[in-house]
Amino acid sequence: MPPRSRTSRVRRLAVSATAATAALVAPATAQADITPTTLVNGVLSTVGGCQTPIRDAIVGCTEMETLTTQFPVNLDLNQLGTNIVVLGAGLYPDGTMQPVLVSRLQAALQVARRYPLSPIIVSGGVPRNGVTEARAMREWLVANGIPFFRITEENTSRSTVENAVNTNGILAARSAAGAVVVTSPDHLQRAMVDFRTAVAGRIPIAGVVAPY
Fold first, then answer.
1. Contact at 8 Å (CB) between 203 and 191?
2. CA 25, CA 32: separation in Å to the nearest integer?
3. What is the distance between the alpha carbons of residues 146 and 204, in angstroms, rounded to a whole number?
4. How far apart are CA 75 and CA 114, in angstroms?
5. What domains sit in the chain, N to C, each tagged with a CATH number?
6. What 3-state class would DSSP assign to 182?
7. What is the CA radius of gyration of the chain?
8. pLDDT of 21 higher than 60
9. CA 83 to chain centre
10. In the beta sheet, which residues pair with residue 128?
11. Which tens digit of pLDDT belongs to each residue from 145-174?
12. CA–CA separation, 154 vs 151, rounded Å?
């Protein structure tokens, strides 16, 4: 099947499955942003083709998603089992955070407040002045009201691929039902591909864009 025809067919399947996804999320109790974008993204991240061990299929499916700051429906389907994963960014030499990382944390904080039962993983190594990205992120979240026991540090990663591989180990160990990756707009699509590749179709991966 030509690439364009295959893409169109997957889009049609995703749209046709939106009603089924919507039926699983009761509007009266939903915490997610129930919009055409989040519903289609939710379908793509599960039955729409992104939850697969085949990297080429993951890339193609992920490219069809609309990156958004809205809360994904995956969290409504299983809040307790779905982990919020915040990706690090390089620290300043003194160990303080750059604005891009603060932006990611602000977005993650909104998700964490909306879903108070979801565990949080902060992922990033590369220490500066004795502080890893993960430690700086955890301290920021705790200072902004997130209980320390909700947060797990993944503090050895040096790249997005390592973020995905190392975090997958944590997700697998706790039998997580899914994950929502939070990072910058120019980073999220690549990160979602890496995370979906790392989990090899075992669980769905969704994403949230930091606003700036």
1. no
2. 9
3. 25
4. 10
5. 3-209 (3.40.50.620)
6. strand
7. 17
8. no
9. 8
10. 131
11. 999 999 999 999 999 999 999 999 999 999
12. 10
